[in-house]
Amino acid sequence: IMLFRRLERAALKTPVDFLVVGAQKAGTTSFRHYLQQHPQIGLHAESEPHFFDDESLFRHGPPDFAAYHKRFPPPRDGLKRGEVTPIYMYWEPAIERIRAYNPDIRMIAILRNPIERAYSHWAMESIRSSESLSFYDALLAERTRPKNYSRERRVHFYVERGRYCQQIRRIWQFFDRSQWLVLRSEDLGHDPAGVLKKVCEFLEIDADACPHIEPIRLHKGSYIEPMDERSADYLRSVFEEEILELERLLGWDLAAWLT
After folding, report:
1. How far is CA 182 from CA 62, 102, 146, in A?
2. What is the pTM of this model?
3. Cα–Cα nearest to 87, from 136, 16, 149
4. What's CA 74's distance to the chain center, in Å?
5. Distances in Å between the alpha carbon of 53 and those of 27, 48, 82?
6. What angle do helix axes 164-174 and 229-250 make, rounded to 10 degrees?
7. What pLDDT score was predicted for residue 2?
8. Among positive and negative, which fits the CA dihedral 18, 21, 22, 28?
C-alpha cells in the first residue's frame, strides 16, 4: 500500500497509456514496428526501456518518472503513449509497480509456443556468448540455477519464462481483465493488420488511420540446427499441463503447440 501511495504521488498527471509486457522471443520487436505506423500511437524512444524491471531505480523510493516520460512524444488529444519491454510480464515486482504508477493502464502480451520460445531464447543467448551449455544441458541446469532477481534469472530461465499461466494470474491480481489484451504470435506473423486492428479497438483509437501493414520479421532467430528431439520431448513433458491450463484460462485451442 505504501508503495502505491509513494508512486502515485511521484507519477506525473499524464502517465503512459499502455505497455507491451511480453513475452520475450514472441515477436515484440516486429510488433513495435507495426505500432509505430499508427499516427495515434506514440512510443518510447528506446525499443525496450526496462523501466519497471530496473531494480536499481526502485531501491530507494520512487524513481524519476520525469526522465521516463521525457523519452515519449509530448501528450496530446487522441495520442496513446506506450512502450514495449517483454520482461515486465515475467518480472514479478514490475506488475505491482505498474499498478502503483497507473491503475488504469492497459497491457498487451503476445504469447508464443513456450517450447519454441525456449529454444529461440537459448539460441539468442548462445549467439551472445551468454550461454555455453547445449540446449538440453541448459534446460536441466535451469532447475538448480538461483531464482533471485539477478542477471542469471534474466538470461538463463528458458522454461520459467514460458510458464504463462502464473504470469497472467499475477496481472489479474492487480488489474481488471478488461485492461488486458493477449495475442498469439502466430497471428502476428500471418495477419499483422488483423492484430493491429484488435489493438486499435483495445486502445480505442482509429483502426482505419493506419497505413497498409506488410508482414515483417525483425530479430528473427538464426539457428545453427533445429531443436534436438530429446530436448523437444523433455519440453513437451514439462509444458503439457501448462499449455492445457492456458487453453482453459484463455479459451484458446493450443493443441498445435504440443505436436
Report:
1. 29, 19, 29
2. 0.91
3. 149
4. 24
5. 20, 11, 16
6. 30
7. 57
8. positive
Joined together, the cell numbers standing for residue 186 give 502466430
pLDDT at 10: 46
Burial of 126 (0-12, 13-18, 19+ CB in 10 A): middle
Q: How far apart (Å, rounded) are the C-alpha atoms in residues 153 and 87?
A: 11
d(CA 123, CA 134): 10
Grid coordinates given for 213: 501493414
The residues of the chain scoring below 50 in pLDDT are 10
Q: Kindly state the cell numbers that stand for 67.
A: 526522465
- The reported pLDDT for the residue numbered 220 is 59
Would the CA dihedral through 231, 232, 235, 237 be positive or negative? Answer: negative
Residue that the C-alpha cell 507491451 belongs to: 20
